[in-house]
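note to self — DONT lose this again. spent like an hour looking for the file last time. sequence + predicted structure for the chain T wanted, 304 res
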Amino acid sequence: MTNSETRPLLQWSAAMAMSGTIGAVVLESGAAAPAVAFARCFVGGALLVLWCLSRGWLQAWRPSRRDLGLAVLGGLFLVGNWVLLFASYALSSISVSTVVYHTQPLILVGLAAAFLGEKVAKSHLIRAGIAFAGVALISLSAHGEDGKPVQLAGIALALGAAVLYAGASFVAKQLKHIRPHLLAAVQTTVGALVLAPLLLVTPLPSTTSGLLWLVLLGTVHTALMYVLMYASIGKLPTTTVALLSYLYPVVAVLVDIVFYGHRPNWPEALGMLAVLAAALAPQGRHKPAAAPEKPAGAAAERVS
């Protein structure tokens, strides 16, 4: 493997591994979901704006009203998705929420079929059925840290986050001509402005450690992660991107097991495998992945 192949491989792998630790950072901050999402938007967005300015991308951007409107709409979907996902961690578990959240690629296919008239292959319908059967199995069998069944509200929030993220990705498909770093900067700025008033109800942590966790989320798990994602995804085969995207949920499950004592029972584990196998199965031939269509937050997390 040449250096030109190794570097994007390591960049994408690092970004996916970072994504898997987001849940732990959110919980350790001790902040409410809206405050966490605001901090992510404010810190990460400011750094992304500086990055775009340093490259001259922001100064040269002259968006049309349509592009700007879609970018703002996508930003609202994106930050809404973060708020729901972060809130779901406390009601279920990091691993359960993360795996359920990974139904979003299948939801995106449904949105494309409904609004763009794209044909849905039979294989997509089968995969969707398997994935949501897995979600049902998780809902009936998963347990939290206290040994009690996870709250269905947590799973519902994770599913809601998946729907919003799919919506953000759907909007981003209409903005493929905009540099993804720039789109991420705009959307996180929108998120910071929208979420700022909520700090009156859900303030930022009062402790230094809590604030430092949020700074970490904004710098490493947002700005740095997105730069790594967008620097690598277009240089890797689609199947490689899909395969390495498994690092996100796998790392999240391992973090939940090692640091939070989560012990999946076999029906829950089976449900998780069903969701991941259906949602993240590689598709197509080995060819370079298209330029990222997903807004910040994710790629595969995804981020979350």
